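Box 4.2: Ligand-aware structure prediction
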Amino acid sequence: MKRILVTGALGQIGTELVTRLREVYGADNVIATDIRKPEDNAVVNGGPFEILDVTDGKAMIEISKKYNVDTIMHLAALLSAVAEAKPQLAWNINMGGLVNALEAARELNCQFFTPSSIGAFGPSTPKNNTPQDTIQRPETMYGVTKVSGELLCDYYYKKFGVDTRGVRFPGLISYVAPPGGGTTDYAVDIYYEALKKGKYTSYIAKGTYMDMMYMPDAINAIIKLMEADASKLKHRNAFNITAMSFEPEQIAAEIKKHIPEFEMDYDVDPVRQGIAETWPDSIDPSAAMEEWGFKAEYDLAKMTEDMLEKLRAKGIK
Ligand code: SER
């Protein structure tokens, strides 16, 4: 991993991943790309940046060649709730983008990372401590693209020898860039609203458990997996990873410890609630722990303390 191309670099994961990669591998060695180029943005101004529409395979290969990259981290994708609103577009972006990124990796002999998700599971998947290898019949377009993506990455490894690697991320919580259109976004919004208004209306119903992780753990996991000894990897793509599982009452109770007047009520969104109900309550990350030493540092209490402190430092109140 010496020269790295990142797609979707301005997204929730990309923003923090690019910053960390530039610290570790050198700013000039991390080529950030996204479909837009805002001014006054740390990712745009902190090193090489190119506008790239991931559905344009020719442009993807040209940019990869221009910078002579040896690693591609493909993050550009639509999240679950928007994908459900625009399923055809989601297929085109999530699968079209992935196959283009894999083709660029094949042509330039790159190492490759792309995330899968807890969305790759469905209602017939065992709900608790969901195993690494299990039934995957998702009922959302997001899930369909994630399972297909897992299979496609396995295929590119077996057929073409591309060094593909990936994880199934749970809901990711961060204070830097907002997520866009996911089902787990409530667990980010709640911190902003707690500080701004002292109250939050949850679109996810009481008692709905989902896996979550704080962004620093997610970024560490990506780098650790990419640096892992290939001979130790039995799964390669789509490792289950998680740091915590909670339902809305639990995150609200944790916030209340810091903001005692905080109140939460519910106005359940049937679309996102429907999606959440098809996902696991908790997944089993033991394959990732055994094969490449995955470990999360943040639990709900430690994350909540840090989130509130960092958001306050950003001037959110
Ligand atoms: N956080 C994502 C979503 O809610 C799940 O991968 O869509």
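In the box above, the bound molecule is serine. Residues 87-108 form the longest helix (22 residues).
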